[in-house]
Design a protein that fits this description.
Layout lengths: L6 H8 L3 H8 L3 H8 L7 H11 L13 H30 L6
Helix pairs in contact: 2-3
Length: 103
């Protein structure tokens, strides 16, 4: 079966047990277990209640998103490496056309 939700990871990250979620949304603990193991899917209203309780974006129940700082750090690290490479490759050319010998 295709994994649709990330409930097991999200519950683990937040230290939440199936029993608490079952009480919150008004279903049995076995129903929540089926959701966690992707044997059955909760409706969007129940997912919204879960996300609201955990204080997360509902999309985090479906996909794992990297934080903005992580994305920025990765981008700038990649950009710095690329720029160093470009400067290293162009430096002899720049020096040969330069009127300043110290470049």
């Amino acid at each position: 079966m295709i994994k649709i939700t990330r409930l097991v990871e999200v519950f683990h990250q937040h230290g939440v047990y199936n029993r608490k979620i079952a009480e919150l949304v008004g279903v049995s603990e076995s129903t929540v277990s089926r959701w966690v193991h992707n044997k059955q899917q909760p409706d969007v209203h129940k997912l919204y209640k879960i996300a609201e309780y955990l204080k997360i974006d509902i999309r985090d129940l479906f996909i794992q998103r990297a934080g903005p700082m992580e994305n920025e750090a990765t981008f700038f690290r990649w950009y710095r490496i690329k720029m160093e490479y470009v400067v290293e490759r162009l430096h002899p050319t720049i020096r040969s056309f330069s009127c300043c010998p110290f470049l």
